[in-house]
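Changelog note: in this version the structure field was regenerated for every chain. One regenerated record is shown below for reference.
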Amino acid sequence: MISFDDIKLQVGTRLQIMLKRGARQLIYYTSLIGYVSGEYLLMKIPFEDGLSVPIRAGERLTLRVFSGMNVFTFVCNVESVFLSPRFYMHLTFPAEIQATALRKAVRVKVDLPVQIEGLAQSGTIVDISVDGAQIAAERALGEAEAKIALSFTFQIKPTNQEVRIETIATIRSLRELPAATKDAPVRFSHGVLFDDIDPTKQVMLQNLVYESLLGLKSELD
């Protein structure tokens, strides 16, 4: 357990909200407006389909935030809800915070088209981590240690907000994949390391990786 101040959250930090509606566990996203240490948090009210999510004073919320390579989870009660002129809420200050390390090496299976700058062909990201990916393509994208410029998009649940990543990557490994059938075309697998990703986009990528690991479970393992 750690203190809230240890997380060093900045205004605008994106958080995941989990709340109960009967037997259902609903997940939304919000952002931090501000806080007074030891007293309360100020959060935006999340929106879905253009409408504010109905959250009532007295409700209990579980919040999750990614910071660095850790996932922090804590529980707050809703003290007040303000719908006009701005949509925000006061939450109780968290008494306990659970920290779980998210290792960079953790990879999750995906199926994301990826575009390679300067090449007519594209490829497919078949697994991804916060710092790299495995790309399958019909021909080699370059030699080992070569730099490639790539881009790909994915969606953040539950709003299906589209996130586009554009980055330079280093090819760390290259191998020919065994053919699925005798007449199947040759394919290549590339292990790439992302050189630099915008910090805001990296948070979104962390969300993708972590949500895939959890399968949107209601609690951390």
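Spot check on this record: Helices lie at 4-7, 199-214. DSSP finds two helices and 15 strands in the chain.
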